[in-house]
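BUG: 3D viewer hangs when loading the predicted structure for this chain

Environment: internal workstation, default settings.
Expected: structure renders.
Actual: progress bar stalls at 90%.

Input used:
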Amino acid sequence: MVSSGSTQKCILGIDIGTTYAGMSYCLMGPGSIPEILPVTRFPAQDHVGGDSKIPSVIYYDRAGRVKACGAETLQESVVEQAIDDRWEKAEWFKLHLGPSNPLNQVPALPTTKNALEVFSDFLQYLFHCAKQYIVDSYPNGSALWVELESSMEFVLTHPNGWGGVQQAKMRRAAIRAGLVPDTPHGHSRIHFVTEGEASLHFCVMNGLATDPLQLGKGVVIIDAGGGTIDISSYRKVPGAEGDVFEETARPQSKLHGSTYAGDVDHIADCFDKTTKLRFRRTDSWQYIKFGRPSDQDESLNIFNGQLRLSGEIVGGFFRPSFEAIFQSVFLVGGFAASDWLYSELKMCLKDLGLDISRPDSYVNKAVSDGAVSYLLRHIRVLARISQHTYGIESLTPFDANNPEHRGRKPITDAAGDLVLPKMFSPILYKNTRVSETQQYRQHYYKMKNDPDGLNLVRIHIMCYRGQDPNPCWTDVEPEQYSVLFTVHADTSEITPILPCKFGANGAYYCLEIDVVLSFGLTELKAEISWNENGVEKR
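Structure tokens produced before the viewer hung:
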């Protein structure tokens, strides 16, 4: 919660989506009622004042300099110059920050840039746009901005499946973009919220499903964006004071898209802005205006600069998205403006006794509005569903009677016993309901022939993203395992008092530890615990 003071303060919510980005803000001052407002003016934007989203796209020249951002990248003169000067286009770049997923066909980044740099460049552009918007929209706007800038709070949204690793990258990008200085106080002004929780805040803020939630019923929020569909579900915790929610199912995300012959990017963009949202019936022709009246090709169904498609074909484009949503209700995001999607869902869900709602206006700014509301109201999400299985790689005693063990090559540990490496030891399983106060721990031991080798303990916390409910070995589906972060512990105070033991390899020393996992507001945390003179140390 942002504290009130004698001067104006500002919260800026930034939602950089896969294909579109938007911002919302709230000015707070003595005697004023906080109001969340969208930024609705961007350079080169069509329909100025009516659209709160711009494309998440950047053009770079061959030296890696930013040449155009957002709506500027849609201008014909910019597109022509990009072709002539061989500029490189960065799109869908946000997905490069996330966990690797071989199923996602993500466009490559420009050769001179990494994901953090592109994200930072776009953040810097949005920050400049927010500044210009506030300066132009308020009396003495320049002086107001000077007053706001040094204390401004930022809320960055990210997909439901992201955690501490991705948040750390986004924080570094925000510092590089000049949003905050690289100081502890500067870091504290950067906040994070999942897109699902931001949408929950937006729905609660707009009074949607108030009665069902008060009765303990669940709510499913469908964020149907331009490039992804995210599904989150929550319910209000019975008996809790205030707005306290818990997640009731693991969030999902589905990519959707389609391919056309010809000028794919331009036609798809025209389709996205018009036909996609206007489509209502499968028994009528649909038209995508993308060219000049002289553009004609009967074999491709192109007449007078318009590509003609049957309603059945257009409905087929939507079908994967519809199935992903229906098999999983509040509808937000740019695609939520589609009347066809809304009417189809309403008809099908009615048979199941479910109702569907969507906000009346600006459904494409729900996440950025909700991000600001997150800091203003901070609706508490008490419990979440774990996205993946988390644990560490460890050794396990070799069992000659186990067929699986016999197929692996054992090694000898410090005690001289046969053990197998590459075993994955889960600590927190996928789809586990977790709360902020719960801890998950497993007991391990580390052995060395030289006690000095136990002065520093280093544990890699790993994540398994595959479908196996009981993953066992890190060399099976190795592409599904990744190291999230490493925990270091200084255990030099206890090593001098460890008892000396003897095994087949002679003297050895054994340090017993626990690896403890817990969840904060939005990210996974890990600690190493051990007993020192009867006192637990972490």
